[in-house]
Design a protein that fits this description.
It is built from 10 helices and 8 strands. It is of the alpha/beta class and 241 residues long. The protein has a single domain, classed as Alpha-Beta Barrel (TIM Barrel), CATH 3.20.20. It has an 8-stranded parallel β-barrel with strand order 1-2-3-4-5-6-7-8, surrounded by 4 helices. Helix 1 links the parallel strand 1 and strand 2. The structure holds phosphoenolpyruvate (PEP).
């Protein structure tokens, strides 16, 4: 199972001291088959990778530019630069970026560039509340998958993260039946390719007991709760027992 910590715009060098608890936890649970991946802001990728040396915790980024080559893109960082400082993964298509104008086409270019750089991709998809209420969820997810993964044949390095937009950071989660159905729908879109599908959106220590019972979910993308090591460890512990 994957447990991906999306730190969003959070953390400085001091915050890294809080990771000692998670390192200790992962070392004492080596036999359990789970993978922890931390996705901090770019400023922390290098120092975090150093902290995780000699552990099996990996580091990822939260976004990248679509250009594989250097260029005149002020403030941007590409996938090769992220790989160079220790990232092994990159989150792409997060709704917080879609909301500020990232299109399916741009996400597709970013995914291709990240694959070329040798990064693994955590590809986020999800519907808004308006779309769910209008019963358009499947249509939206189908379109996000088709456009985001257009002309990408090998998806072995792509993990799908289903994150209902209205669930991120709100404490609201889907009812079990609806979530089961949506995950099954996503799975059906890939036929035999069978990618790993994660759930994200307000995962916390209270709802994890319910969420872990949903079939076909291979782990969780955790935002707010992952900033607190105790809560993050608690979620992992509850998921793996
Ligand atoms: C996220 O940022 O991807 C996320 C799921 O956030 P939260 O857990 O805070 O809802």
């Amino acid at each position: 199972m994957y447990f991906i910590a999306n730190w969003k715009m959070f953390g400085d060098l001091r915050t890294l001291n809080t990771l000692d608890k998670v390192i200790k936890f992962s070392k004492t649970n080596k036999k359990n088959k789970f993978q922890i991946i931390y996705c901090p802001p770019n400023t922390l990728i290098r120092p975090m990778s150093r902290r995780f040396k000699k552990t099996n915790i990996e580091v990822g980024a939260q976004n990248c530019h679509d250009s594989y080559d250097y260029g005149a893109f002020t403030g941007q960082v590409n996938s090769r630069m992220l790989k160079n400082v220790g990232a092994k993964y990159v989150i792409l298509g997060h709704s917080e970026n879609r909301q500020i104008g990232e299109t399916d086409n741009l996400i597709n270019l970013k995914i291709k560039s990240a694959i070329k750089s040798g990064l693994k991709i955590i590809f986020c998809i999800g519907e808004t509340l308006k779309e769910r209420r209008a019963k358009k969820t499947n249509q939206i997810l189908k379109s996000q998958i088709e456009k985001g993964l257009k002309s990408i044949k090998n998806i072995s390095n792509i993990i799908i993260a289903y994150e209902p937009v209205w669930s991120i950071g709100t404490g609201e989660i889907l009812k079990e039946v609806a979530l089961t159905e949506t995950i099954l729908f996503i799975k059906s879109r890939f036929k035999k390719k069978n990618p790993k599908i994660l759930y994200g959106g307000s995962v916390n220590t209270n709802n994890i007991d319910k969420l872990k019972k949903i079939p076909n979910i291979y782990g969780f993308l955790i935002g707010g709760a992952s900033q607190n090591p105790k809560k993050f460890i608690d979620i992992i512990q509850k998921s793996i027992i």
